[in-house]
Design a protein that fits this description.
83% helix, single chain, 117 residues, mainly alpha, 0% strand
Length: 117
Amino acid sequence: MQSVTIAVVFVYIALSTSGLMLLKKSLSTLPQLSAGAVVSLSTNVQFLCGFFCYAASFLTWLWLLSKNDVSSIYPTVVGLTYAVIVLTSVVFLGETFNAPRTIGVALVGVGVILLAR
């Protein structure tokens, strides 16, 4: 992988993860998802920042797809993003990190290393 691609992968992971964490935090304040709740989210700064981060991650994803083989970039990006999301959900959302998740993240890491070769 070229150094520009590696940099864009990290930008994608940062945007996607930030977007998901912000969206989850803002959605968890709602008692239920309804039309009124969606309207109230349109003025929620946390939700809007999460939405724009996630939308920007999609644009970086399009760039990555245009420059790389799907068979290598997709599993690499999805695997790394999965691992980062698991870790950030523990830190920022208070989710649990148990043995099966630890093993899963480790296996994903091994898979990403094998794909990068």
